[in-house]
Amino acid sequence: MNMSDFVRGSTMRGSSGRQQGGRRAVATIVCRDFPKPDFESTKPFQEMQEASQWLKDAPRPERPLNVVIAGAGLAGLSTAKYLVDAGHKPIVLESRDVLGGKVAAWKDEDGDWYETGLHIFFGAYPNMMNMFKEMNIEERLQWKQHSMIFAMPDSPGEFSRFDFPDIPAPLNGVIAILRNNQMLSWPEKIQFAIGLLPAIVFGQRYVEAQDHLTVTEWMKQQGVPSRVNDEVFIAMGKALNFIDPDELSMICVLIALNRFLQERHGSKMAFLDGAPPERLCQPIVDYITAKGGEVRMKKGLKNIALNEDGSVKQFDLLNGESIQGDLYVSAMPVDIMKKLMPDAWYQKPFFSKLDKLKGVPVINIHIWFDTKLTTVDHLLFSRSPLLSVYADMSTTCKEYYDEEKSMLELVFAPAEKWIGRSDEDIIEATMTELERLFPTEIAADQSKAKIRKYKVIKTPLSVYKTVPGCEECRPSQKTPISNFYLSGDYTKQRYLASMEGAVYSGKLCATQIAKDWNTTSLPTPLFSSKELETASS
After folding, report:
1. What pLDDT is attached to residue 375?
2. Residue 210 phi/psi, 5° resolution?
3. What pLDDT, on a 0 to 100 scale, did the predictor assign at position 204?
4. Cα–Cα dist 300/315, whole Å
5. Cα angle 173-142-365, degrees, rounded to a multiple of 5
6. Helix 43-57 and helix 126-134, axial crossing angle in degrees, nearest 10
7. Which residue of 131, 220, 441, 467 has the smallest Cβ count within 10 Å?
8. Residue 24 and residue 411: Cα distance in Å, rounded?
């Protein structure tokens, strides 16, 4: 399928060519967002809606507890949001001057936003969808056509797509796969499907049991053809965890595939209509502060001071302040948590096992071009050796919309060998890859579309690297320290390292605190009984 087919298929009309005299004509792009899926009727959404309501209905504590939370990313803000719902007073401390953690973004000197990552909101994110609903900001999600679109490495400029019909799962996914004959042959599709049967039949129990295998090891064990790896899993691995299948734990891929195959709208994607700090995080902050909580910026944590019994005495800050509370939560990334962890805690297996959880490097790139590219109103899987996914944000996102000039946002992964290289080297390598993806419009030497400006955002330690054996090292939100809890996508919850995992971890953390401190007779909520039983043990 060539690019013009894609433009029509994605409810966009594009035209490009050359005017007389050799001057290139500007592409005309027409975008149309799709209606919000009917999440409210699905079991995952209703379960997490029940989770939110449980916290609002929980018996009030004898007095609101001051809960000091380190980190104003999605995990920290989610924890604080659900703590105020449960009747407590969170005090969120953020080291930087920007909200969001891994979804942070900044404005440059021209007023243009640049972000830490290309953030996609999936239909399989029931906690995130509930958060948007509870904040009354559902209209800020721009839903795209229910498709997954892959570049064709052997056919520059061409793409292949999986279009999901609007019918129940898993039939919509099966039909999407069967109708695509460009990436997998029929025998390969059948062998792939047979390999996935145990995950579909046995669900989460089987999925978690595969954590000892990499993606490539699992494929060999299940008799899945190696071409499935080349055609599908390399792109999925880099999109899910920024690493290749020979390193990635199969649990990561199976969790995603299970959600996509079991939920009608699970693989449907949406873009936020602007920068996450303003369009997502700030409404949560407003909610927290309106109910008596606090969010304090530029309050970086320097040290966790302990009492003689090993419990937390106070949080010592980089500016010399000390903050005391009734309870304390770390919503910091796992690498920062390990760096600030008191030496006395390392003697406990609960904390020492965190050593295996290490952040993966990732690079996010923004390139502003001087012309409008013939593009697609969707996320694209590049399937290149250096790039993971990309999107023309001037087409997909309202705040970044530009009819005359494109702004590509791209994820450069795996990034381990590039994180120390110069921005110029990274842009040069990126342009070489883009020449393959846009052969008629982009040349590595900029003889076609020219770069107006660019931003390279390096995150040396992003989400934890999901290699085999990590699952047993992920901690519960409840710790052995009586007044200290954890929140973050690396903590134990069913959605792994993702925005959804961060939001859900915050809800679980707040739920555990309410269960521990609101009343001694508070029943365990049904929605999270497994997670909280794990925490208690």
Report:
1. 82
2. -95, 10
3. 81
4. 10
5. 90
6. 50
7. 220
8. 28
> Largest alpha-carbon pair distance within the chain?
81
Placement of tokens 């900029």 in the chain: 446
Ramachandran bin of 203, using left for φ above 0, alpha for ψ from -120 to 50, beta for the remaining angles: left
> Within 10 Å of residue 382's Cβ, how many Cβ atoms?
24
Positive or negative, the CA dihedral 96, 102, 103, 108 is positive
pLDDT in tens, 277-288: 999 999 999 999
- Tracing tokens 């699970």 back to the chain, one arrives at 266
Q: What is the pLDDT of residues 402-412, one digit of tens each?
A: 999 999 999 99
Mean local confidence (pLDDT), 373-401: 94
pLDDT score at 33 = 86
* Nearest CA among 2, 10, 18, 28 for reference residue 403: 28
Nearest in space to 242 (alpha carbons), one of 455, 386, 354: 386
Give the phi and the psi of residue 503 in degrees, each rounded to 5. -65, -40
Token pair for residue 368?
């502003």
Residue the block writes with tokens 């999600």? 141
Q: Residue 370: is its pLDDT beyond 50?
A: yes
Q: How far apart are CA 73 and CA 260, in angstroms?
A: 26
Q: Residue 217 corresponds to which amino acid?
A: E
How far is it, in rounded angstroms, from Cα 365 to Cα 393? 12
**What residues are paired with 387 via a beta bridge?**
412
- Token pair 């012309």: residue: 371
Provide the pLDDT for residue 203. Answer: 81
CB neighbour list of residue 143: distance below 8 Å, 6 or more residues apart: 33, 34, 35, 36, 37, 268, 269, 270
pLDDT digits (tens, 9 = 90+) for 213-265: 999 999 999 999 999 998 899 999 999 999 999 999 999 999 998 888 889 99
Residue 5 has pLDDT above 80, yes or no: no
Q: For the chain, count helices (H), then strands (E).
A: 19, 20
- Provide mean pLDDT across the span 421-434: 97
Q: What are phi and psi for residue 22, nearest 5 degrees?
A: 90, 0
Outline where 309-422 has alpha helix (H): 334-340, 349-352, 393-396
First to last CA, the chain: 53
Q: What is the pTM of this model?
A: 0.91
Give the number of other Cβ atoms within 10 Å of residue 192's Cβ. Answer: 21
| Peptide bond connecting 414 to the previous residue in cis, omega within 30 degrees of 0 | yes
Q: Which residue in this structure is represented by tokens 């994110």?
A: 125
